[in-house]
Records
---
Amino acid sequence: MKYNSEELKRLDKQFIWHPFTQMSDWLSEEPLIISRGEGNYLIDVQGRRYLDGVSSLWVSVHGHQREEIDQAISEQLSHIAHSTFLGLSHVPAIELAEKVIEITPRNLVKVFYSDNGSTAVEIALKMAFQYWQQCRKPRPSKTRFISFINGYHGDTIGAVNVGGIHLFHRLYKPLLTESIKVPSPCCYRCYLGKEYPGCQMSCLSDVEEVMERHREDAAAVIMEPLIQAAGGMLVLPPGYTKRVRQLASKYELLFIADEVATGFGRTGALLACELEGIEPDLMALAKGITGGYLPLAATLSTQEVFDAFHGEYREKKTFFHGHTYTANPLACAAALANLKVFEKDKTLEKLQNKITSLSEGLRSFWDLEHVGDIRQLGFMVGIELVKDRDSKESYPFEEKKGIKVGNEARRRGLLIRPLEDTIVLMPPLSISHTELGEMLHIVYESIKVVTEE
Ligand code: PLP
């Protein structure tokens, strides 16, 4: 190593601006610098090992340094690292597209590549907009989007436009042609003051009312199927997503499923849409697509959407969109290997027991006085900490309880990253039962220490 750990820390603070990070805090704290990964662990420059409790931000599927994926990348590297996808094609992208279409809902037939979740979403939004401008019976007034409070679709401007997280999105309002927002179906803090299942999901009538009102000026509705992830791991009531999909069809809106967080096994199924038998018009995939190795994303479309972009060159119906690293061959090779490992390891089959163990392990967390809610969908968990369980009163923002729990867990050898005061657990699907137990133990102790201090 060119620099020792102290020099690296100094240089990081001198030169780097980190994402979603208050840099004043960063500069006054001890930065953690990772040097390698091994299975479900990350190892820092001083050789300390940490269990990767959030899969390196929701991407790692089979763990780090998985031999088959490493090899696939090396093998691809011996052919070519990158060639443009504008006007050319290449082998791994073709093989991957065939595979992706095989494993996703039947009505999705085309793959448009990009390189991260936000771009996958931007592309879906632009496709939906353009579809209505040039489909067989154009509806040029359909230009807006319906999206959910507490929804999150990325940080680029188009994605922020359909985002609904006050903390992240509020400031950028003047930049946006804001989307039409519908309430979050968050049961813990139901805006109607009702309880599931007695409520019979009556919040859906508000969604329907908005869709009906905007059927002439809205192009699409976008949502994260089954769980609003970055919004605080808010698990939607069963059947809710499917109903929104049906309403979208009823009011002639395209339905965009953002599976960036939920895709590739996170929910216990390969895709969340499978759990409710949903066929979206457009789907955004990213994060776990390469097993957490390289940046790659895909926006999938139906034949009908695709057909609206056909025409004579002079008609200018082309989808004028593409990124320099679209369909990077190394990333496509990694994604193909990732999908092969799913089959070889029977990842989804083995996951089911681990999901049950996770649910069982989480039960004891109710003993902790400041645990307000525990939400779980497959391998996606949110433990919401509150100042007062009865009133559901949150801690003051500046108390940084979630961050403190994260810091405490780190001292104990586990890396997690909260969403405000919701402690997020998203371990790699490859985590062992023993490691799962270790993770839960550390999280329990960390919450206890921080909330009882
Ligand atoms: N959509 C969802 C549902 C996400 O959870 C995220 C990221 O967390 C994104 C989109 C944005 O993905 P990226 O960070 O790769 O741009």
---
Amino acid sequence: MKTTLSVIKADIGGFPGHQSVHPDLIKVANEKLSAAKKSGAIIDFFVGKCGDDLELIITHTKGVDNKDIHKLAWDTFVAGTEVAKKLKLYGAGQDLLSDAFSGNVKGLGPGVAELEFEERISEPVIVFMMDKTDPGAFNLPIYRMFADPFCTPGLVIDPSMQGGFHFEVYDTVEGRKITFKTPEEMYSMLAFVGSRSRYVIKRVYPGPGNKVSEKEAVACVSTEKLSQIAGQYVGKDDPVAIVRCQSGLPAVGEVLEPFSFPHLVAGWMRGSHQGPIMPCSMKQATPTRLDGPPRVVALGFQLANGTLVGPADIFEDVAYDYTRQKANKIAEYMRRHGPFEPHRLPEEDLEYTNLPKLQEKFKGRFSKI
Ligand code: F6R
Ligand code: MG
Ligand code: MG
């Protein structure tokens, strides 16, 4: 039996502002998914949150891109939006960009990461959820966990990993994709994925000789670009990712290691600033300071025939206190730049904000030098 793990998320209203998810939205999502579990439509679920994003973690046997599962998530978001509207939560229904569901939530606003696989004897998975940033924020950590031997000793020590990993990379501007093989094409891949606003790592596959089949993706990142869908700024994508761990794949600790460095990501206030990503627990994932700094939460599960054993709220651990302190120091340093780059994003990345309107307003006032 193959298990599918689907993580589908949306911001359907924040409280207060864009800070967190109201408990009533969690409640309504739990009710909806409980009913689906009872009816046998899904195996198991967990409703999580990160900042103002409601995160539906669902297991089933229907495969990726399944219409019933996407409809269940969509209906859950619609039901949550009704509650959000009653409570006048901020941006109620923000990420539901269309009224009409047509078989798949992709392109309608919600973010999706899904993996289908044959469960191994033991199947540890980690679901990462980010707020106040975009999918490119996963490039650095995913690259490091699967391709950097200074992060993942298994690449050097575990014979199963000697064949490296294959990375599927999306070009979000031209709508095309490419697969890079590491370690042999590592330098070329970095030339692309270093441009994280355009090239995003979508999936990772095991290389030759791995215990896990080369055909089975072992990591997946949500890459929906809300701004490109909506044609105007409706918030950052606030991506999610799923990573399978251990036994030929990076160990749980190797998968977490990249997050000990609070790297700079695009997002934060008005989706227009560079700031450090702060690993924290679900409870701590409430972007406050200037609507930030951006957050990442890691929920660990063991899968047991589709049942989600967990979650372990991993970044709750004291081992990440130091990273949080460092993130606060970097946040303070970046903030001192105010409206100047590199704190504020460069012009081309502000394409969907209010800046183009200002440029239009002052267009006539410019004269030739
Ligand atoms: C960033 C984000 C917030 C808002 C900001 C302004 O992803 O969601 O930082 O951009 O609070 O929001 P509005 O324009 O809705 O007042
Ligand atoms: Mg919001
Ligand atoms: Mg959000």
